[in-house]
């Protein structure tokens, strides 16, 4: 089983956790005792495009840090995504506001535009949350 | 003003104010009352009274551009957090405690303004514990 906790929502065994305009936002795997993150934000709707595949930055002026149980991506000083992995569960914190998208998490919920999602369980779905 | 221009204006204001407050163009259906400049009025939600002057200061550098894009000076209608919850809670759907299995997941529109709420796609098994 794989589980992603994002803004208190649990997305379990889904092909992709979140998509934006049909582009999977992020995925991860553990390679050589290190988290390997893929993170893609399409432009539009974002103001800047970001493409990271397996910890290699293809597009976007961002910095990536990865170690054995976490990975994060920053745009300047702004944290876009931070992922903590423990066993088969990953906890993601997200803030795409610096990219012009009102999508972010806090300790209570995942906020997408004017919608708020919290404490939901989405299991065995094609896409957990599809945006756009 | 085209829909694209209206969205761009909202994006500019959201960016200038660090995405702190949800915005929308005044809506013909849900904004009551008649006033001059209705077509160039923007609702600003969840803004405490004490922050309204700061909001106007933050958008000062882009007011000229907004005026040019909108073809007129914009009017801002501020709604305090209490007033937003009392009169506009329908614009801010909260999806909580949903247990969704084997479907297409949850679909949301791109986060612009306050339009759209979550839609469950596919034919999932849904266990609704609590939803507002």
Produce a short descriptive summary.
The complex is a heterodimer of chains A (132) and B (132). Chain A is mainly beta and 132 residues long.
Keywords:
heterodimer; A: 132 residues; mainly beta; four-stranded antiparallel beta sheet; globular; B: 132 residues; alpha+beta; three-stranded mixed beta sheet; two-stranded antiparallel sheet; 4 helices; 29% helix; 22% strand
Give structural notes.
The complex is a heterodimer of chains A (132) and B (132). Chain A is mainly β and 132 residues long. Chain A has no helices and 17 strands. In chain A, a hairpin with a 2-residue loop joins strand 11 (78-86) and strand 12 (89-94). The radius of gyration of chain A is 14 Å and the shape is globular. Chain A starts with a strand and ends with a strand. The mean pLDDT of chain A is 91. Chain B has a 3-stranded mixed beta sheet, with helices on one face. Helices cover 29% and strands 22% of the residues of chain B. The model of chain B has no long low-confidence stretch (mean pLDDT 83). Chain B has helices at 3-16, 52-59, 63-70, 81-88; strands at residues 23-25, 41-44, 75-78, 94-96, 98-101, 105-108, 119-121, 125-128. At the A-B interface, strand 15, strand 16 and strand 17 of A face helix 1, strand 4, strand 5 and strand 6 of B.
Helix share of residues of chain A? under 10%
- In the predicted model, the low-confidence regions of chain B spanning at least 5 consecutive residues are none
Instruction: Indicate the low-confidence ranges of chain A by residue numbers.
Output: none
Number of helices of chain B: 4
The proportion of residues forming helix of chain B, as a percent range, comes to 25-40%
Please give the order of strands in the largest beta sheet of chain B. Answer: 1-2-3
Kindly report how far apart the N and C termini of chain B lie. 34 Å
Note the quaternary state here. heterodimer
Kindly, what is the distance between the CA atoms of the first and last residues of chain A, rounded to a whole number of angstroms?
27 Å
């Amino acid at each position: 089983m794989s589980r992603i906790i994002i803004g208190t929502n649990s997305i379990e065994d889904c092909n992709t956790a979140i998509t934006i305009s049909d582009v999977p936002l992020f995925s991860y795997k553990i390679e050589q005792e290190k988290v390997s993150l893929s993170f893609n934000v399409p432009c539009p709707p974002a103001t800047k495009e970001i493409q990271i595949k397996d910890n290699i930055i293809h597009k976007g002026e961002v910095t990536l840090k990865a170690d054995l149980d976490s990975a994060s991506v920053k745009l300047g000083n702004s944290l876009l995504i931070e992922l903590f992995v423990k066993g088969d569960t990953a906890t993601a914190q997200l803030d795409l506001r610096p990219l012009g998208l009102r999508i972010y998490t806090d300790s209570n919920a995942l906020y997408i535009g004017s919608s708020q999602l919290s404490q939901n369980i989405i299991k065995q779905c094609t896409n957990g949350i599809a945006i756009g | 003003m085209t829909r694209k221009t209206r969205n761009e204006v909202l994006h500019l204001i959201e960016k200038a104010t660090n995405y702190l407050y949800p915005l929308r163009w005044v809506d013909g259906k849900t904004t009551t009352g008649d006033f001059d400049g209705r077509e160039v009025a923007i609702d600003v939600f969840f803004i405490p009274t004490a922050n309204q002057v700061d909001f106007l200061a933050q958008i000062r550098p882009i007011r000229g551009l907004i005026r040019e894009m909108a073809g007129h000076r914009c009017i801002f209608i501020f709604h305090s957090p209490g007033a937003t919850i009392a009169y506009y809670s329908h614009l801010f759907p909260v999806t909580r405690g949903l247990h969704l299995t084997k479907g297409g997941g949850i679909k949301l529109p791109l986060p612009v303004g306050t339009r759209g709420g979550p839609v469950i796609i596919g034919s999932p098994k849904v266990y609704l514990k609590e939803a507002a």
